[in-house]
Amino acid sequence: MRIFLRLITTVLIALVCSLWPAGRPTVAAGTCGCLGTADAAALGSADAAFIGTLSSYTVTPLANGVNEPATYTFAVESVFKGTVPSTAVVFSFADPGSCGLVSMETGIRYVVFATLVRSDSFHPTGAPEGKLMSTTCDGTQMLAAGAAAPDYLGNAAPPVTAATGNTLAPVTLELPPAPDTTWKRSLAIAVGAVVAIGIVARLLSGRQRHVVR
């Protein structure tokens, strides 16, 4: 009986792991456990990466304080991934417990790693879909004044100048189509069920032979 329980437990664990979504960890409000991302990994996971000087930031208080948003405006000097305007607005959370960018100072240069706001992701209240956002999980970090861009960023490109009258407007990046993984999950469930049934049948068959003897 103990062997039977161990085998079933192993199968269930394997099935759960096969269905668990890959990628960066999900972050729930008030429970940030991110310790930052390694530089190369940060660049690979980001939808946009750039170096810019923080010119201003705004925190928008909400009545209930849930997902309280903060916006950071950067004067962009160089872009290493994605399409970023010369004046880039990056959304984040005001609460460090929600992995929001904190201790950011105006006049300081930063290497910013940002992702696109998606409707199905945990994001600051009011952040429009397709805009840039960054958290402490994404690897945004301070860069010393006059310091060269880190080598891992690769070749730099100039920011995009998107003007509306005399005001630079943030560029909205296109969201890539979400991959359809429904068939993969269905296949994993089916395989797991077949394996579990096979194990149970084999164990029951063995017990019956033992009883006959």
What does this structure look like?
The structure is a single chain. The protein is α+β, with helices and mostly antiparallel strands and 213 residues long. The chain folds into two domains: 2-21 and 181-212; 39-168, OB fold (Dihydrolipoamide Acetyltransferase, E2P) (Beta Barrel), CATH 2.40.50.120. The protein has helices at 2-19, 39-45, 182-212; strands at residues 48-59, 69-81, 87-93, 109-116, 132-133, 141-143, 163-164, 167-168. The strands form two sheets. It has a five-stranded mixed beta barrel. The radius of gyration is 24 Å and the shape is globular. It starts with a helix and ends with a helix.
Task: Show the helix and strand layout.
Elements (H helix, E strand, L loop, with lengths): L1 H18 L19 H7 L2 E12 L9 E13 L5 E7 L15 E8 L15 E2 L7 E3 L19 E2 L2 E2 L13 H31 L1
Helix pairs in contact: 1-3
Concise account of the structure shown:
The chain is α+β, with helices and mostly antiparallel strands.
Strand residue content: 15-25%
The assigned CATH architecture of the largest domain is Beta Barrel
User: What is the overall shape?
Assistant: globular
How many E-type strands? 8
Query: Number of domains in the coordinates?
Result: 2
* SS summary, helix count: 3
Mean pLDDT, all residues: 74
Q: What is the end-to-end distance?
A: 19 Å
CATH fold node name of the largest domain? OB fold (Dihydrolipoamide Acetyltransferase, E2P)
